[in-house]
Amino acid sequence: MRNLLKKYYTDLFLSKRFFAGIGLCVSLFLFSFFLPWLADLAYLCFWIFAALVLVDGLLLYQPKKTVFVRRDLPERLSNGDDNELHIYLENFYAFGIRAGLIDEIPYQFQKRDLWFKSYLKSGTQKTITYTLRPTKRGEYIFGQLRLYVQSPVGLVVRRFNIGSEVTVPVYPSFLQLRKYELMAISHRLNEIGIKKIRRIGHSMEFDQVKNYVQGDDYRTVNWKATARKGELMVNTFTDEKSQHVYCIIDKSRSMKMPFEGLSLLDYAINASLILSNVALVKEDKAGLITIAEKTGSVVPADRRPAQLGKIMAILYKEKTRYLEMNMEALYTTVRSVLKQRSLVVFFTNFESMSALNRQLPYLKRVAKFHLLLIVFFENTELKTLTEKPVQDVEDIYIQTIAAKFAYEKKLMVKELAKHGILSILTPPEKLTINVVNRYLSIKAQQKI
């Protein structure tokens, strides 16, 4: 009995109407000291109010079948993307209810005002849809759903605590991965900014014999097929297959810098996952290496169906370190793991020429054996500062320093090109498109 009363007591709340009714009764009793004829009215209002509270409580607590609530969570969330979540409500009361819902979302989102209001007629259902955008990979814990229900009387509120804690992992951006995969399969990458690259010559990977159409290279005419069929036939060629594409991700402190909620490491992880998937669709072999003060994870290049799952499982748990990157360890790993000439896409960040010069000897050694593509980031905050109107001498000083750092980034591109190393200097938000563009360009130009 005690536990039953405690259960009712802990889930029972008083509404604004209740306090308004109490205030009215107290006011009538107060004024009855000066106007005695109000005493009977005050008692009448009090007992009517008490009866309404009792009726309201019975309406909410007496039915056995009340409400049904379910939260529909995906198996995993996509980092850096808007993920849709759904909450299903159904009313089994014999009357319409006003409902307020609190979803205890993970603390990582730092949202304390996620409150949904709704009205449901008897026997109706409703689905509440909202989005969450995680900015860190890892495990996210969803708490209970807390539903607050009011009857048409509206004096008391009953709370329902639904469900228990649920853990949902946040993986690198697989929503973008699916989008790029579908476009790569259907050859529509140009719709999202992927450029069409003019081919220089053609590869030696034979595809098929087809009818000649205007614009085909006359040097590819297949004379034997032409003689058999009686009309011009040409050989067509496709990109070279089974080439090795390795993504190397720098996990040192230089990749800790945030941009729009995500760190540079998260941008690099999302881009490398998409690049690996596009490479697999193009029938190349994708591999992965992570590096900080020591070598992290290594996934040898392969194109089996499970390869992308292996890469995603590795990238899911990677975190930035707080030490400088060990380029000697990276060079040793590249020489021991990469057994043939490969495209090496190195995601890192340089903030000064001195930082680049420290790593340049090792980069030149890697570029001697492989096609090396360095991907590093523009500091968009510096660009904003250089475009900001100047108000005083301090602004001039700040703008000059910002312009100096921005100019150094461009000098780095030229310095790398001088040593025959390809590079991409990109804003974080355009990283994926720029990297996939360059990969397709390299494939079309047969540089690997």
UniProtKB/TrEMBL annotation:
<feature type="transmembrane region" description="Helical">
    <location>
        <begin position="41"/>
        <end position="61"/>
    </location>
</feature>
<keyword id="KW-0472">Membrane</keyword>
<feature type="domain" description="DUF58">
    <location>
        <begin position="208"/>
        <end position="372"/>
    </location>
</feature>
<protein>
    <recommendedName>
        <fullName>DUF58 domain-containing protein</fullName>
    </recommendedName>
</protein>
<keyword id="KW-1133">Transmembrane helix</keyword>
<dbReference type="InterPro" id="IPR002881">
    <property type="entry name" value="DUF58"/>
</dbReference>
<dbReference type="Pfam" id="PF01882">
    <property type="entry name" value="DUF58"/>
</dbReference>
<feature type="transmembrane region" description="Helical">
    <location>
        <begin position="12"/>
        <end position="35"/>
    </location>
</feature>
<keyword id="KW-0812">Transmembrane</keyword>
